[in-house]
Amino acid sequence: MADQTILQPVETGARIHTLDVLRGVAVLGILAVNAAAFALPMSAAMSPEQSPFPLVGASAAAHWLVEVFFHQKFITLFSMLFGVSIFLVGGERRDESGGRVLRRRLIWLGLFGLIHGLAFWYGDVLLLYAWSGLFVMLMRSMPARPLILFGIGATLALATLQAGTQWMAVNGPSGLTEALGDESMRLADGAVAASIAAYRSGWPAGLIENLKAWGILQSASLFVYVLATIPLMMLGMGLFKAGFFHGRMPTRVYLILIAVGAAVLALLGVLEWREITAGPGVEATQGWANVVASYPIFITLAYASGLILLTSRGVGWVRRIFAPVGRMAFTNYLSQTMIMSTLFYMPWGLRLMGQIDYPGQLGIVVAVWALQLIWSPLWLSRFRMGPLEWLWRRLSYGHDLPLRRET
After folding, report:
1. Cα–Cα distance between 17 and 35 in angstroms, integer?
2. Burial state string for 305-341 with b = 16 or more CB within 10 A and e = fewer than 16
3. What does the pLDDT read at residue 184?
4. Residue 138 class from Cβ within 10 Å (0-12 exposed, 13-18 middle, 19+ buried)?
C-alpha cells in the first residue's frame, strides 16, 4: 500500500532555535548592506566614488561601519543557512516525498524571485538561491566531512582568486591595473544623476531603470555568483550535520573561530578606515583592504559562533529577541523591499532616491529593524508562521496548512 502520510512543516516546539536566531540576525544584517542599493542607483551603490554623497565626516563613518561589520558577512551566513534548509526540507536523497516537496519549494522560490526582482527590486537574491539549490539538493546525502571540506575549500579558493585579482588591480602592470581598476567601471559624467532622475519620475522610467539593473546583476548571479553560493550552502549543510549549529561542538571550537574572526575584523577595520579617509582614487593600503575584505567567511563564522554560544548556553534574551524574526525571515526579507522601495522610488511612495546620505540610510535601517523586531513576535503570538512562509509552504507541500494558532 502506498504511503498516505501527509507531509507537514516542522512544528514550533521541534524547531532548532539557534537556526532561528542566526536567520533572524542574518536577515536584519542584510538590510544594512542593501539599504544603499535601494537609496542609490546600482552603479553608485556598488561604487561609492560615483555616489552623490562624498565619504567625509558622518558619511565616511557610516560607510565604514557597513563595509567592515556587515558587507558580505550576513549574506554569507544566510547562504549557509539556506543550505541547512535544503537538508531539513528534503532529507536524504532516498526520501522521495521530501525530494518532491523540496523541488516544488525551489521552483516556487524562483518564481517569487522573478516577481520580486522584475517588479520591485533588482537586488533580489531568491532567484539565485533557487538556482543554486537545484544543484545543492543533489548533494544532501553527502556526509558532513566532505561537505565541509569542499565547502570551505572552494570558498577559500574563490576568495583567494578574488583577493589576487584585487591586489593585481592596484599593484600589477599598468595595462592590467587600468583593465581591472575602478576607473574601468566608471560611468560617464551625469549618468548617475540621470538614473536618479529616472527613478524619481515614477513608472515607467523607474521600472526601466530597475529592469536594466536586474538584467546586469541577475546575469552575474546565475552564471558567476552561483559558483560562490553553492559551496557556502554545502558548508552550511555540512556544519549542520556535524552539530555546529546545534551548539554541540566543544566550546573551544567556537572560541577559536571567534578569535580568528575578531582578528580579521580588526585588521579589516583599520585598513578600510585608511582607505576611506585617504579619499577617492588614493590606494592608501596598496590593495590590502580589498584583499582582507575578500575573506568574509572568517568573520561570518565568528558571528555565528558567538550567537550559537549565547543561544545554546542559556542566554534567553538572544533567542527571545531574534528567533521570531528568523522564523519569519522570508516575510521580513520581502517586507524590507516593500518598505525601502516605497520610500525611495515606487510611484506611490516618497521617491527619495538619491536624496538620503549614508547616515540617513542607516537611520532608516535601524527603524526597520525596530519595526521587525516588534512585529514578528506579535504576529507569531497569533499565528503559526509568517504570512509569506504560510503561502510558500502551502504551495510547496501541496495542501492546506493551519495558519492561526488554536486558542
Report:
1. 28
2. bbbbbbbbeeeeebbeebbbbbbbbbbbbbbbbebbb
3. 44
4. exposed
**CA 333, 338, 341, 342 torsion: positive or negative?**
negative
At 125, the amino acid letter reads V
| Grid coordinates belonging to 150 | 569542499
What is the DSSP-derived secondary structure letter of residue 19? Answer: H
Cα–Cα distance, 203 to 120 (Å, whole number): 11
pLDDT at 305 over 70: yes
Residue type (1 letter), 357: D
Rounded to 10 deg, the angle between the 126-136 and 226-241 helix axes is 60
CB 303 within 8 A of CB 261: yes
Q: Grade residue 15 by pLDDT with cuts at 50, 70 and 90.
A: confident
**What residues does 404 pair with on adjacent strands?**
383
CB 334 within 8 A of CB 7: no
Q: Which set of grid coordinates corresponds to residue 301?
A: 563564522
- Per-residue model confidence (pLDDT) at position 182: 56
In whole angstroms, give the CA distance from residue 339 to residue 368. 8
Write the pLDDT tens digit of every residue in 142-162. 999 999 999 999 999 999 999
What is the distance between the alpha carbons of residues 406 and 202, in angstroms, rounded to a whole number? 44
| Cα separation, 342 vs 120, whole angstroms | 9
Is the distance from CB of 176 to CB of 169 less than 8 angstroms? yes
